[in-house]
UniProtKB/TrEMBL annotation:
<protein>
    <recommendedName>
        <fullName>Sporulation protein YtaF</fullName>
    </recommendedName>
</protein>
<keyword id="KW-1133">Transmembrane helix</keyword>
<feature type="transmembrane region" description="Helical">
    <location>
        <begin position="160"/>
        <end position="178"/>
    </location>
</feature>
<dbReference type="Pfam" id="PF02659">
    <property type="entry name" value="Mntp"/>
</dbReference>
<keyword id="KW-0812">Transmembrane</keyword>
<feature type="transmembrane region" description="Helical">
    <location>
        <begin position="102"/>
        <end position="121"/>
    </location>
</feature>
<feature type="transmembrane region" description="Helical">
    <location>
        <begin position="63"/>
        <end position="81"/>
    </location>
</feature>
<keyword id="KW-1003">Cell membrane</keyword>
<feature type="transmembrane region" description="Helical">
    <location>
        <begin position="127"/>
        <end position="148"/>
    </location>
</feature>
<feature type="transmembrane region" description="Helical">
    <location>
        <begin position="6"/>
        <end position="26"/>
    </location>
</feature>
<feature type="transmembrane region" description="Helical">
    <location>
        <begin position="38"/>
        <end position="57"/>
    </location>
</feature>
<dbReference type="InterPro" id="IPR003810">
    <property type="entry name" value="Mntp/YtaF"/>
</dbReference>
<keyword id="KW-0472">Membrane</keyword>
Length: 179
């Protein structure tokens, strides 16, 4: 039964990762496997830590959602700033920086805290929860990124995709703040 619960935990904590990957793909940012792995490892590590120590952390309340949502909104707004929307093809073919990887990985990992905390209270073993969250994170970010990159082949102005991707990231952050 813990395996099914852990899989549901992985899916529920990673839907935002799917949309993050989509957002990046729409901005023509191909997320390398290593960067995706770092994001997945961050989420897995936080899940394991908070699942294991859930009894000690009951006072955090909504703080993880507020911090994670704020980070994601900031990244979405940052990509809308003047100078970040160059229409040259080199802007859209750029990779993903390690700084961006660490910031987004941290923001997404923070969002795992409340669910991991609850999972620990229900008795789901931390290592099973961590494997599920980390593995499904890898799949969701990669799938979203591939879908976003494929959609950029549509005959629309490149700025449209930057704005759409940034908008998705901002809405995702707002949902985290409200949720």
């Amino acid at each position: 039964m813990h395996v099914v619960s852990a899989l549901l935990l992985g899916v529920s904590t990673n839907l935002d990762n799917l949309f993050l990957g989509l957002s990046l793909g729409l901005q023509k940012k191909k997320l390398p496997f290593r960067a995706n792995a770092v994001i997945g490892l961050f989420s897995a590590a936080v899940t394991a830590l908070f699942c294991a120590s859930s009894a000690l952390l009951s006072g955090l309340g909504r703080l993880p959602n507020l911090v994670g949502g704020g980070i994601i909104i900031t990244m979405g707004l940052w990509s809308l700033l003047p100078g970040k929307q160059d229409t040259g093809s080199d802007c859209y073919q750029q990779g993903f920086t390690w700084h961006e990887t660490l910031v987004l990985g941290s923001g997404l990992a923070v969002n795992c805290i409340p669910v991991a905390f609850g999972a620990g209270l229900t008795g789901i073993p931390p290592w099973i929860a961590a494997l599920s969250v980390g593995g499904i994170s890898l799949l969701c970010v990669a799938a979203g990124n591939a879908i976003g990159l494929a959609a950029t082949g549509l005959a629309l102005h490149p700025r449209f995709f930057v704005a759409l991707g940034s908008g998705i990231m901002i809405v995702l952050g707002i949902l985290e703040l409200l949720g």
